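Regression test case RT-17, inverse folding.

Input:
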């Protein structure tokens, strides 16, 4: 008969019946950590809970066992009664999970030490520097010098952290490996795991007399000066240069990290940039828009003359080729796009107002194409909806 006291395995792990393998593994990690006997010594309830969690995961992580459990529950005809052993049976991924729980491999299960040892060579951290550039410096390129701080190997102890004239000694607890083998009891019997050595903190070395310059860290802070050529065409927020080996120093003989240089470009008063194209607004007078002619257009290299056609409308955008930004590490250039805006005078004298009225009267509305088109649309709309307008006013 089935054990009626057993809780549903899905309930034990806190997952739905359609849970994926990843969901099961995450739920197992969380539940096993919460009730592991090492974290709750002499707690029989935690030990029982840990056993229950392991049994549930053993079944649900095995596709065949899970299928039988989903079909028959604890009444598995293939296994008799409960049908599931509570001991380890080698289901996939268990070594990885235990390694995550305890920080090392499990010799009892044939697992390898997957965690990074503290005394193994480690690459230094990368650094990032944001180089301030003006809009023109980014557009045309320039030569820049800047300073930044990073760690460097202590020149007094040569990175050992020990007082000059002395050397670190192998840790007596771990023999220099940085790890301890620990035997513990579990629902599967005695289990061996590798843990970070508590004596040396995983470094494998003990420093009896620390270097007074670096305090035993093996590194000191230094100021570095870098001079580099900024290529033309660099854009804001762009990683345009990487200097190998100028990052933080490595540990235990590992290589240094790299320095990544990003551009931080100040905005321009006139121009806006989109990749290699430039945009700007240019005010023009009414007479210039109506008659056309040459207008002065700003560029990054000064100003130039450009002819606009008669009847140019407000908001018209004009493209001027090859007046944009030089392509990064290339020869071609983007374009300049100017948008013209009518600059309407605010203060007119009597004579000027009179001239404008005479000018307006002389047109009689015939030359305003957009206004005439709009007026025609309004007239058509009113004509098409006359009956509806009458009906609405009649109801009122």
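Golden output:
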């Amino acid at each position: 008969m089935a054990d009626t006291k057993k809780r549903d395995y899905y309930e034990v792990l806190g997952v739905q019946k359609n849970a994926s393998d990843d969901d099961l593994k995450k739920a197992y990690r969380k539940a096993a950590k919460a009730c592991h006997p090492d974290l709750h010594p002499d707690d029989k309830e935690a030990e029982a809970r840990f056993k229950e969690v392991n049994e549930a995961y053993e079944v649900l992580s095995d596709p065949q066992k899970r299928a039988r459990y989903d079909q028959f529950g604890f009444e598995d005809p293939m296994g008799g009664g409960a049908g599931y052993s509570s001991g380890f049976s080698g289901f996939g991924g268990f070594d990885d999970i235990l390694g995550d729980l305890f920080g090392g491999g499990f010799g009892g299960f044939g697992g390898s030490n997957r965690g990074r040892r503290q005394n193994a060579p480690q690459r230094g951290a990368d650094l990032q520097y944001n180089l301030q550039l003006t809009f023109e410096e980014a557009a045309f390129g320039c030569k820049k010098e800047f300073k930044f701080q990073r760690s460097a190997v202590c020149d007094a102890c040569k990175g050992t952290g020990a007082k000059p004239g002395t050397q670190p000694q192998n840790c007596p607890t771990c023999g220099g490996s940085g790890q301890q083998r620990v035997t513990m009891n579990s629902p599967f019997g005695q289990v061996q795991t590798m843990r970070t050595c508590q004596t040396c903190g995983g470094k494998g070395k003990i420093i009896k007399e620390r270097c007074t310059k670096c305090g035993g860290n093996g590194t000191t802070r230094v100021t570095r000066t870098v001079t580099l050529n900024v290529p033309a065409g660099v854009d804001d927020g762009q990683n345009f240069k990487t200097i190998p080996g100028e990052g933080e120093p490595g540990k235990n003989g590992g290589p240094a990290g790299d320095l990544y240089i990003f551009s931080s470009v100040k905005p321009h008063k006139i121009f806006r940039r989109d990749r290699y194209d430039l945009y700007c607004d240019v005010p023009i007078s009414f007479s210039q828009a109506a008659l056309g002619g040459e207008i002065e257009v700003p560029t990054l290299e000064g100003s130039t003359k450009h002819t606009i056609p008669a009847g140019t409308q407000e908001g018209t955008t004009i493209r001027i080729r090859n007046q944009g930004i030089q392509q990064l590490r290339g020869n071609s250039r983007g374009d300049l796009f100017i948008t013209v805006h009518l600059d309407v005078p605010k203060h007119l004298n009597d004579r000027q107002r009179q001239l404008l009225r005479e000018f307006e009267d002389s047109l009689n509305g015939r030359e305003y194409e957009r206004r005439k088109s709009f007026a025609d649309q309004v007239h058509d709309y009113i004509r098409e909806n006359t009956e509806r307008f009458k009906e609405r006013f009649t109801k009122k």
